[in-house]
Amino acid sequence: MAKCLIMYFSQGGTTAQVAESIAAGLRREKYEVDLYDIKEDQQPDLSGYDLLGIGSPAYFFRPPFVVTDYLNNLPDLSGMPAFTFVLHGTYRFDTARSIRRVLARKGARDAGHFHCRGADFWLGYLKEGYLFSPDHPTPEELSQAEDFGSQVAGHVAGKPYSLTEEERPPTLVYRLERFFMNRWFVEQMYSRMFKVDKNKCTACGLCVKMCPRANISEDRDGYPVWGRNCLLCLTCEMKCPKDAISTPIGWPLIRSLMIYNVRHASRDPSLDYVRVNHSKGQTQRI
Ligand SMILES: Cc1cc2nc3c(=O)[nH]c(=O)nc-3n(C[C@H](O)[C@H](O)[C@H](O)COP(=O)(O)O)c2cc1C
């Protein structure tokens, strides 16, 4: 039986859902499928696999650093077929292209691409009162993902495949945003802007536990201390039940970019959203 390994990063669970659906489609075609969460931080052994799948959310119009680092550490893939899938709350632009570029450099053969929307719990938007793409992926999108899994099996077997949809690069403002969210800024500037209000913090350790990069440690009194290995997912601030954490999201440059994004996306008829209130780690629909 042919074997497939699907590796994905999923902080909010939507990429994981799509990974499961694609796996179901592949199993329909008699593939044995293993799923691997990149957060586990160990490079799985690829020997014995015939097909590779890489799933990622769009983070600032590119894959999160954790995904690119992971891909860069993959061994030579010597012609192994590989497919990609991307989840996005608003605009993904050419996120998948950078994943495919690394895979091609590693010698993988492109076996297909899937993308769909995923509920966008990016704190920058929640704080402005917007949850984009709520309830995505929908049952229909998940069923399309399952069909995609079957199609991939066909591509591997030799059915012709070419990427049909054009993936545009970001427009100027979004390109600037991507630039301001690059690794240098994150490591050298934003990482230093995380603060905890010790009058509110109960040292519950939730932020430490939730950080996907294990980037938060505890000081002697149990208060969080941030390192430089941040993805800017802001899960720490988002999940804090005491609203004790402040992050670079409050910084005027980032705040104004968020306001621009929310204005733009909320006027785009192709996107859906609900209005929300976010406080004390909870997002409530209004
Ligand atoms: C830090 C961060 C940055 C994001 N940047 C983008 C983006 O640039 N474009 C987009 O369409 N969605 C963006 N999103 C939304 C996610 O891509 C989307 O919600 C995805 O479904 C999340 O996947 P997950 O649930 O597997 O974590 C971002 C979300 C986060 C947390």
Short description:
By secondary structure, this protein is α/β, with parallel strands linked by helices. The protein has helices at residues 14-28, 65-72, 95-105, 123-127, 139-156, 172-180, 183-188, 206-210, 235-239, 252-266; strands spanning 3-8, 32-37, 51-57, 81-88, 109-117, 130-132, 195-196, 216-218, 224-226, 245-246, 273-279, 282-285.
Helices and strands, with pairings:
Layout: E1 3-8, H1 14-28, E2 32-37, E3 51-57, H2 65-72, E4 81-88, H3 95-105, E5 109-117, H4 123-127, E6 130-132, H5 139-156, H6 172-180, H7 183-188, E7 195-196, H8 206-210, E8 216-218, E9 224-226, H9 235-239, E10 245-246, H10 252-266, E11 273-279, E12 282-285
Parallel strand pairs: 1-2, 1-3, 3-4, 4-5
Antiparallel strand pairs: 6-11, 7-10, 8-9, 11-12
Helix pairs in contact: 1-5, 2-3
The protein binds flavin mononucleotide.
Flavin mononucleotide binds at residues 10-15, 57-61, 87-92, 118-120, 122, 232-233.
Largest sheet: 5 strands, parallel
What small molecules does the structure contain?
A: flavin mononucleotide
> What percentage of the residues does DSSP assign to strands (E)?
15-25%
Alpha-carbon Rg, integer: 19 Å
Mean pLDDT: 95
* Spatial arrangement of strands, main beta sheet: 2-1-3-4-5
Describe the structure.
This protein has 286 residues and is α/β, with parallel strands linked by helices. It is 34% helix and 21% strand. The protein contains ten helices and twelve strands. It has helices spanning 14-28, 65-72, 95-105, 123-127, 139-156, 172-180, 183-188, 206-210, 235-239, 252-266, and strands at 3-8, 32-37, 51-57, 81-88, 109-117, 130-132, 195-196, 216-218, 224-226, 245-246, 273-279, 282-285. It has a five-stranded parallel β-sheet, with helices on both faces. A three-stranded antiparallel β-sheet has the order 6-11-12. Helix 1 (14-28) links the parallel strand 1 and strand 2. It is globular and about 60 Å long. The protein binds flavin mononucleotide (FMN). Flavin mononucleotide binds at residues 10-15, 57-61, 87-92, 118-120, 122, 232-233.
